[in-house]
Design a protein that fits this description.
about 260 residues, alpha/beta, Rossmann fold, 6-stranded mixed beta sheet, 4-stranded antiparallel beta sheet
Length: about 260
């Protein structure tokens, strides 16, 4: 049975602490993630984002505090937690020798699906990879590999997916591809816990954003709520060179008036 956790929250963390010898990485971390939303944990390198993900996915034990995922305590009910989640790390865990289809079929077989090829075909279609299904993954772009990696992690229909810095090392075009994939996951009802160091990524994707600094969540809320934490901007007059678009519209407008 699930613990006394309100099911409106897919993830609930209270007073989480973790140290590595003398290094205190997490200090009384509190956060909540509502079911079916995208939560972005924002922080610089070494802030402890991956440590939180490892604790929530049962790969690491906390020193103090409690954490529940899908209503299950991560320390006391790790097996139940693992059945309801999936984790995609910072680097795509795909086999480059195999084709995209073969990667998906392999995972479906390991998870004992009766029709692994059908599972693979459905995911290839869902993630726009059908045209590249029978090509070796070594020929895929960075964005395609990441989309395949996320597709593999969805085999078994996890209720919650953890994406640990999913666009690290990707070019802008590939990053946008991944953003579209993440948005589609949330639209389909999947809860997404995303870690990132890119401010724009959090701004584009997240329903709520937590800022991790110095081992604690120093701010947590929607983008609009976080903006209110800063003083209003002062308005100053700055002379600005016109853009080519403005020049074009001005010239065209004058021509039409003649």
């Amino acid at each position: 049975m699930k613990g006394d956790i309100e099911m409106a929250n897919a993830i609930q963390v209270k007073g989480l602490q973790k140290s590595f010898k003398e290094l205190h990485v997490l200090k009384d971390v509190d956060l909540e993630v509502e079911t079916g939303t995208i939560f972005a944990l924002l922080g610089s390198n070494g802030a402890g984002k991956t440590t939180i993900v490892k604790i929530l996915t049962t790969l690491l034990n906390q020193d103090r505090g409690t954490a529940a995922v899908n209503g299950f305590d991560v320390a006391e009910q790790p097996d139940h937690v693992r059945r309801s989640i999936s984790l995609t790390g910072q680097f795509a865990a795909v086999d480059e020798i195999l084709t995209g289809r073969e990667n998906l079929i392999l995972i479906a077989r390991l998870r004992h699906f009766e029709h692994p090829r059908q599972v693979a075909d459905d995911l290839l279609n869902r993630f726009g990879l059908t045209g590249a299904a029978d090509r070796r993954v070594s020929t895929y772009s960075g964005g395609m590999r990441r989309r395949l990696d996320i597709a593999m992690s969805l085999i078994g229909n996890p209720e919650i997916i953890f994406l640990d810095e999913p666009t690290t090392g990707l070019d802008p075009e590939a990053r946008i591809e991944v953003w579209k994939t993440v948005k589609a996951l949330a639209e389909g009802g999947t809860t997404v816990f995303l870690t990132t160091q890119y401010l724009e990524e959090a701004e584009q994707l997240a329903d709520r954003i937590g800022i991790l600094h110095g081992g604690s969540i120093i701010a947590n809320g929607t983008l609009a709520e976080l903006k209110k934490l800063f003083p209003p901007a002062t308005v100053e007059y700055v002379e600005k060179e016109p853009s080519l678009e403005q020049i074009f519209l001005a010239v065209v407008g004058k021509k039409e008036e003649q």
